[in-house]
């Protein structure tokens, strides 16, 4: 997930990905099938791990509270040390 986050889909090489996971290419293919499927799993993990504040915001009773909650969650997320800045994962043209 971190490799895609920092380098984007196109910028993440197979060597980058296998090095980060500490596995060889054949293990990556066996586990994920291809780079696109690995990207989808990484994005799913990103959403589940780092974007939990979004559903909370949508549960707020008013539009104003929803927007405020989403903005506060975004600021907290982006100001957390260690998180790369900007979008988590560059758009994957192969992923639709």
Question: In words, what does this structure look like?
Answer:
By secondary structure, the protein is mostly helical. The protein folds into 2 domains: 1-49, Homeodomain-like (Arc Repressor Mutant, subunit A, Orthogonal Bundle), CATH 1.10.10.60; 51-85. 67% of the residues lie in helices and 0% in strands. The protein is built from 6 helices and no strands. It has helices at 2-11, 14-21, 25-32, 35-50, 53-58, 63-78. The longest helix has 16 residues, at 35-50. The model has no long low-confidence stretch (mean pLDDT 86). Residues 1-50 form the HTH tetR-type domain. Pfam families: TetR_N. It comes from Tunturiibacter lichenicola. Keywords: DNA-binding, Transcription, Transcription regulation.
